[in-house]
Write a structure and sequence with these properties.
mainly alpha
Length: 268
């Protein structure tokens, strides 16, 4: 589980609850009708805006947002460099079984295209088309949560109007006026919290994870094409390292240095 996502939600809710308790009675901020207006209205509007299949895709997207899984860019580059070395020693056919063992469909597909003798430009086009559709699917998930973030404050305002109308309808009953005003303000609060603490941040997290996945698949494309071109493994490594952030490059160099030391020690 991604602790940053979980802790962010918990810390945000705890700070608000503590602030409310410091100011007065927390029960004053509970309104089931406000929850129905904000969350029920938001999900109903989402169902109008998207197809049922797209709405149901929100559930696995939540697992992605809270998932800690992240592909190690350095390990992927090391694997592609190893593939380049194997290709130069044993030929492209030797890569087919090695790629299948990785359980990475995108890389396996690219290697299979290369092994089948597909033209390099066609290999790039096929893989980039698949990458474009992957990005499109990810954007759909992000847009659902972004839309929810835009709609929930609007339904908070609708709840405010409902509360004000109820208040104005009972001007002769002071108790009813207070209840209507409470519903009006609490619904606005719920809508703002839902948008800014839940929906919009989750959309941002999904975008971040999508960018990371697309980046690593771009690394795979360049590595596959370099292997097909028969480039020197050292050149392949240096080319793929250009995709890494400075910190990751330093880690890669450190790991390379450690492996060299181990190799010298073993020879001794």
């Amino acid at each position: 589980m991604d602790l940053a996502t979980l802790l962010g939600l918990i810390i945000g809710m705890v700070l608000m609850v503590v602030s409310i308790i410091m100011e007065g009675d927390i029960s004053l901020y509970w309104s089931f009708s406000s929850i129905l207006i904000v969350f029920g209205g938001t999900f109903a509007a989402i169902m109008v805006n998207f197809s049922m299949e797209q709405v149901l895709s929100v559930i696995p997207l939540l697992r992605v947002a809270f998932s800690r899984h992240k592909t190690n860019n350095i390990e992927v580059i090391d694997t592609l460099v190893e593939f380049a070395e194997t290709s130069r020693r044993e030929g492209l056919l030797a890569l087919e079984e090695k790629a299948a063992a990785l359980n990475e469909p995108f890389l396996e597909k690219g290697i299979q295209l290369v092994v089948d003798g597909t033209d390099a430009e066609l290999v790039r086009n096929i893989l980039e088309i698949e990458l474009d559709f992957l990005d499109e699917r990810h954007r759909l998930g992000q847009s659902i949560f972004e839309q929810m973030g835009a709609l929930s404050p609007a339904f908070g305002m609708i709840g405010t109007l409902i509360g004000l109308i109820a208040m104005l309808g009972h001007l002769d009953s002071p108790d009813q006026i207070g209840m209507g005003m409470a519903v009006a303000l609490i619904t606005t609060l719920y809508g703002a919290v839902a948008a800014n603490l839940i929906f919009i941040p989750i959309a941002g997290k999904l975008k971040l994870k999508s960018d990371e996945e697309i980046l690593i698949k771009q690394v795979m494309i360049e590595g596959i094409l370099s292997i097909q071109a028969g480039e020197n493994p050292r050149i392949v490594e240096e080319k793929l390292k250009s995709f890494l952030a400075p910190g990751e490059r330093e880690e890669s160099e450190r790991r390379l240095g450690d492996s060299s030391v181990e190799g010298v020690t073993a020879d001794a």
